[in-house]
Amino acid sequence: QVQTVESGGGLVQAGDSLRLSCAASGRTFNVVAMGWFRQAPGKEREFVASTDVRGLSAYYADSVRDRFTISRDNAKNTVYLQMNSLKPEDTAVYYCRAGRPGINWASNRNADFGSWGQGTQVTVSS
What we know:
The chain is an all-beta fold.
């Protein structure tokens, strides 16, 4: 089972950029898809992005496509989320999650991903 620890969040202004990191542990990291989710205040958790085992393909929520980029470095057991052109509506706690073995990497289904980490807070001021 893959455990995750997110970092890199902070307070930024609209239009700024941030890069989130997710340090993963577990022997299966290199063979599972990885995804980012987020939860805004008063809202349900939602899918943000996912990538395949080798980080060659990515799938994004419509709300972040063309602004966010997910990537992974399997040698470092780390997943990244580069966030550009941030908007106030991107304010949320961001979570990194490991995909369950055998899922379609281009999945946005909550049930296709494993446990939640502690998350990292991203706050975008207008």
